[in-house]
Amino acid sequence: MNSNRIIWIDLAKAFGIFLVVIGHLISTDNLVGRWIYSFHMPFFFFLSGLCFSNKYNFTVFVKRKFKSLIIPYLYIGLIISVLYLFIYSFEDILNNIRHHFFNYGAMWFIPVLFFTEILFFPITRIKNKVIILILIFISFVVGYLISDFKILSTKVFLLNSASTFLALFFYGLGFLGKNILNKILSSNYKYHIFIVLVACHWMFLILSGTAINIQLNLLPNPIYNCCAAISGLLAFCLFSYIFSLIIKKEAIIGGLIYIGQNTLVILCFHMLFIDYSINLIRPLIDNHLIYNTVEFIFVWILCFSFIYCINKFTPWIINRKKAFMP
């Protein structure tokens, strides 16, 4: 276990990526699906902002982020394109590359995070946190205007303007909320705060009726969607921290941390495996419950297999210099 990493953040990433996969396995029309979509992607942008470090100058920062995000995106996109040839035509794959540039499944998150971090870097040079808060609020408003009225809506290469502006808001909250969150986590009232946040989250979720969708630039009820996302992601942070305090079994914590440190692989490949399941396994199983169970196991087995193989044989694909094993 790497002592330089904050355990609860790796746990949070593990729980978060679990929700991402579950969200793609079930319908978003039911309550569980709406609950997952109400905060799970804002949660990842929030965590990224929480971990932001501006110890480098802008040029070095851009190079490092390009190397850690865009290069793996291109490598993995190429691999997935080849693997999709087993179930889709070569023409379909070329059309995806031509129009979406490897934007398979949840891979949209990677370029959006890249542009979000690049845009946010100059903002971190501002010393006044109130001004930063105003700027990220403006970013939220701009994202809403783009999503609702299609104003300044742009999709060039990997840049999605609406998604990036919405992501910047949650990323900025993570950056600004570091000290406040640390105080909450170390507080004697963290359990009480957790209960209050869960109650607030469900209240806003019910009031909103729908969930935020950063990928599709959907913000149907901006105030309720925003409040549901913020209360949900904060509650999930507390849940992850409390989990790290309560669960002492090293095998469980170690396994979850390993997942949390390999979320990039799961994020990129799980939709491929779901599509494999739909095309290759679904026609063989009539019973809906049995199929869902088989699909769940199938997807996770392949996810763990790819994590193992990539870390052992080709760690450079995900910007690791040497093999990373649990």
Helices and strands, with pairings:
Blueprint lengths: L6 H19 L5 H7 L2 H11 L7 H27 L5 H11 L8 H15 L5 H21 L5 E2 L2 E2 H16 L1 H8 L4 H19 L13 H25 L3 H11 L2 H19 L6 H26 L13
Antiparallel strand pairs: 1-2
Helix pairs in contact: 1-2, 1-3, 1-11, 1-12, 1-13, 3-8, 3-11, 4-6, 4-13, 6-8, 7-8, 10-11, 13-14
Can you walk through the features of this model?
With 326 residues, the chain is an all-alpha fold. It has one domain (7-318). 72% of the residues lie in helices and 1% in strands. It has helices spanning 7-25, 31-37, 40-50, 58-84, 90-100, 109-123, 129-149, 161-176, 178-185, 190-208, 222-246, 250-260, 263-281, 288-313, and strands at residues 155-156, 159-160. The protein has a two-stranded antiparallel sheet with strand order 1-2. Helix 7 runs antiparallel to helix 8 and helix 13 packs across helix 14 (288-313). The protein starts with 6 loop residues before the first helix and ends in a 13-residue tail after the last helix.
Concise structural overview:
By secondary structure, this protein is mostly helical. The protein has helices at 7-25, 31-37, 40-50, 58-84, 90-100, 109-123, 129-149, 161-176, 178-185, 190-208, 222-246, 250-260, 263-281, 288-313; strands spanning 155-156, 159-160.
